Amino acid sequence: MRHLKSGRKLGMTTSHRLAMLRNMVTSLIEYEKIQTTDTRAKELRRVAEKMVTLGKRGDLHARRQAMKVIREKRVAKKLFEEIAPRFKDVNGGYTRIIKVKRRHGDNAPISIIEFSIPAKQEKAPEKKSKKKKKEEATA
Fold it and tell me: Domain locations in the chain?
């Protein structure tokens, strides 16, 4: 029986699974959006949310704990300086999983996991409608 045993084994050894999750969370923080299977995305969400929580704390101990998982200094810096401040007023729910399609080879369900609050993007200049252009021309 599996009582009180949380997490999925994902069909691999413990060391392989932990290494895969570390690589995936590093990629998620670096690119802010990755595509993977549903079950991997659900497991990755647990690790990613913990990393954002550490980023929100922002102290030296939190940085060292994050570096145990992330293993790339530039990605950890991005977590603490760019991603965590976006979520300063939010308690949990930092990621979202969007189901996309099924993989061609084995029909596995594929999802996109991304951060729920996107980076601030600069707005493109608004296009003027034809009506406004005519009004400006006549004035």
Answer: 14-118
Q: What is the 3-state secondary structure (H, E, C) of 98-126?
A: EEEEECCCCCCEEEEEEECCCCCCCCCCC
Cα distance between residue 97 and residue 41, in whole Å: 7
CATH fold of the domain at 14-118:
50s Ribosomal Protein L17; Chain: A, (3.90.1030)
The rounded distance, in Å, linking the Cα atoms of 37 and 29 is 18
pLDDT (tens digit per residue) in 47-67: 999 999 999 999 999 999 999
Task: For tokens 């400006």, name the residue.
Answer: 136
- Give me the phi and psi of 75, to 5 degrees please: -75, -40
